[in-house]
Amino acid sequence: MQTAMARKDDTKEPLSGGKRLFRLAGMTASMAGRYAGHRLAQGFRDPEQRREAREDYHRRAGEQLADTLGELKGAAMKLGQFASQISDLLPAELAAPLQRLQKNAPPMAFSVIHRQIETQLGAPPHALFAELDPEPYAAASIGQVHRGRLRDGREVVIKVQYPGVAASCDSDLRQIRRALNAARLIKVDKQVLDEIFNEIRDRLHEELDYQQEADNLREAGQLFGAESGLRIPMLVDSHSRQEVLTMEWVDGRPLIEAASDPEVPHALGLKLFQFLTRGLFEHGFVHADPNPANFAFDEEGRLIVYDFGCVKRVPAEVIAAYRDTVQAGLDQDWHRIDRGLMQLGARVPGSPKLPDHFYAEWRPIVMQPFLQDGAFDFGASTVHQAVMAKSPEVWAYMDRLQPQAKTLFIDRVVSGHYWTLVNLGARLDLRQALMPYLS
Questions:
Q1: Phi/psi at 230 (nearest 5 deg)?
Q2: pLDDT band at 243 (very low <50, low <70, confident <90, very high)
Q3: Strand runs (DSSP E) across 170-229, as ranges?
Q4: CA distance 218 to 347
Q5: Suppose 289 and one of 40, 244, 310, 427 were both cysteines; which one would form an S-S bond, judging by CB atoms 3.0 to 4.6 Å apart?
Q6: What distance in Å separates the CA atoms of residue 33 and residue 13, rounded to the nearest whole number?
Q7: What is the 3-state secondary structure (H, E, C) of 290-353?
Q8: Nearest-CA neighbor of 86 among 410, 429, 437?
């Protein structure tokens, strides 16, 4: 490590204020123009040509969104990352290009980080840390992480938020929503869309408040700290503020490195599943960012959870409805499934019940890991392929189905962890692991 010193760096600082608005407004105008041309041309195409052109239009829109949001970083990029994980909010062809926003973002200049630490903690880094590495350990959409050492010898990581990100959050969300509407990329009732964007905004505001994350970290330690198979870093309260968060350094290996071990992937996969299910059903506390970079494992095989910026606290009535809907799926009780989805907001209020065959055909696809006897092999899973093949049929019932704000972040976590288990090649008896939480 090197002692922290402010230095000149060619890395650009994040755009702010009018420059961000101008960039997003330009994207909106461009996407609206592309939609107008696309719609005009559709009148001269046959059905198959229209389908192909629509998919191509969505792909191009996704590429433009990914380019712009990745450049802006901040809440804009964070929203793009989130959108790429929500299959029922955006067309699949549009969401796919947004996947690249999940990768580490280019880092900010260390001079920016130096100023943020001094502004937030009231002293220059060299007065606060014995060592601080100017090279980032990781860089993301709203901030980056540096390793360091306190003057008492403790090894730490310092999470520093980029300046101006919180101030631009609401305007970023408003402008991106205008772009999606102008390009006709979201076909959802206005009230439902309001609820979805309000939910995303609330979680983003919490994630941008590192004092809130500090509270989440303390609560997670109280709820899960006694579990021998789990490790959560300790907060360093003296070196944490609104936009700077310092935690103990917990050395771990990326989950993907466990895939080559004959036994570790299955044990880690089970711990990850139990962390989610216990958090949801027992505590109403869901770690809501399933990015694999937020998880690791140590030499003792413990699951390490690093980032508690995005946490969803789930009301008791939503937990009860979620539990009953899952149980109804296992019981093949189509009426209770329909009632549960209505309670969760996934059904359009007052709309007719979906036909039984709709649920009967989806059950063996989405519930496959819970239906078979013994362990399900995620490494050989084709659930995602079956979902993609079946999804077009959902459009026939779009007058009765809608994305739900209540479980938006739970669905994000389930989808994200599914891919983690696939990449681990984990084999898990999920029915046995789930049943205690449904009883």
A1: -135, 145
A2: very high
A3: none
A4: 36
A5: 310
A6: 30
A7: CCHHHEEECCCCCEEECCCCCEEECCHHHHHHHHHHHHHHHHCCHHHHHHHHHHHCCECCCCCC
A8: 410
For residues 438 and 331, give the distance between their C-alpha atoms in angstroms, rounded to a whole number: 12
In 122-158, alpha helices (H): 125-128
**At which residue do the structure tokens 């994305």 appear?**
403
Amino acid code (one letter) for 268: L
**Which residue in 320, 388, 394 sits closest to 359, CA to CA?**
394
- Measured CA to CA, the distance from residue 386 to residue 399 in angstroms comes to 23
Given a contact cutoff of 8 angstroms between Cβ atoms, the answer to whether 77 and 105 are in contact is: yes
Q: Specify the residue for token string 């802006």.
A: 72
Query: Distance between CA 14 and CA 21 in Å, rounded?
Result: 13
β 311-313/303-305 pair status: unpaired
Place of tokens 């540096």: 146
Q: Which amino acid is at 370?
A: F
CB distance 181 to 196 below 8 Å: no
- Residue 11 in this model has a pLDDT that exceeds 60: no
Residue 158 DSSP SS3: strand
Rounded Cα distance, 140 and 129, in Å: 23
Distance between CA atoms of residues 343 and 305, nearest Å = 31
> Which of helix, strand or coil describes residue 92?
helix
* Lowest-pLDDT choice from 28-32, 104-108, 291-295, 327-331: 104-108
pLDDT score, position 19: 79
Say how far apart CA 325 and CA 340 lie, in whole Å: 5
At 133, is the secondary structure helix, strand, or coil? Answer: coil
Q: Are strands 138-139 and 143-150 parallel, antiparallel or unpaired?
A: antiparallel
Q: What is the rounded CA–CA span in Å between residue 83 and residue 61? A: 13
